[in-house]
Structure prediction request, 392 residues.
Amino acid sequence: MNHHQVETAASNSEQTTFSQPLFSDVLAQTDFTELQLITADQSRVLQALYAKTPDLTDLAVLLSPQAKLMLPELIARAAELTRQHFGAARQLFAPLYMSNLCANECTYCGFSMSQAVKRRVLQSEELLLEAEAVKALGHDQLLLVAGEHDRKVGMDYFRRQVPLLRPLFSRLMLEVQPLSSSDYQELKQLGIDTVLVYQETYQPLAYQQYHLKGNKTDMRWRLNCPDRLGVAGMDKIGLGILLGLADWRLDALALGLHLRHLQQHYWRSHYSVAFPRLRPCSGGVEPAVLVGDAELVQLYCAFRIFAPELELILSTRENARLRDLLLPLMITSLSAGSKTQPGGYRVAPQALQQFSIDDERSPAQMAEVMVSLGLQPVWTNWHPAFGRGEAQ
Ligand code: SF4
Prediction:
């Protein structure tokens, strides 16, 4: 392993010295061939279902085509573990798109720089209007989202906007371009509790094929972003892959390896995982790999069993029927009433979306459904009177 590495990127002049291996090196040194070829009979699947400390081999077994034939058993075990670790509580949150400006070209995304769409960066007053509209829907946990544009929607912008929004919500989450450790430390001070940074795919050839221009072409900078978040002591770190780009089983195994790496080195942080499926966008890209509903369910079950304490997120990209099915079983956090364009709640409700959403139900309707399923909708997970629990 390469200890004491120096992490740099074209997009950032900061140099951070890490005292532990970075995930990019762990990934480069891992051969997944054996895990991919694993053949599991029924008893091996049962062994993985009830493993005390499931390892990557157990995850490979749970993701295998053979395990798919035992989906009812996987679902039952995932539901049992979800009940044990989370009871009936399910978190609700909403995304707020701050900007659709993007300096990258990702072939599957409607915000790519080459797309001829009207660009917009919300400024303070507009952000506050949007935030109030989200609050009026009942939400108390907000995910701030933006396309990747360091110059116009970078640290200066976050420094101005985050403190304005912080008093309105009990949890502020961020999904923007990967930043440096010192930036994350500062964002934590400003009031960001959670950062999501999805790798999209862990397979270098596929990654190159879909990411054509801009800082996102630097796969290593993105791969090591969760390490930088861990070093910064971020409370929660969100990982994810975009299903439809490449072999999903291989990407899921790499994600499992990533999660274990982070849990081992940054054990103070909490983790979440999401598996968005590629949806039609204005770029019109069709998924290269189709991931069916049964496979999506298998994937969520496998991760619940692999890491029972993990927050599993489901987005409004999925349809209402599937969301209602998965919610009681293993999902612990979901967005509701989402608008995926800047200004979508109040300022510019008709603008272009990053991707189309399927579940159009309002947060209140979603909460009613949850109650009818015997679940407890959780709008807020912290009271301001307690202060913010700093990790160190
Ligand atoms: S996926 Fe993200 S980085 Fe890529 S074009 Fe869309 S908004 Fe920009």
Remarks:
- The longest helix spans residues 248-265.
- The chain is about 40% helix and 15% strand.
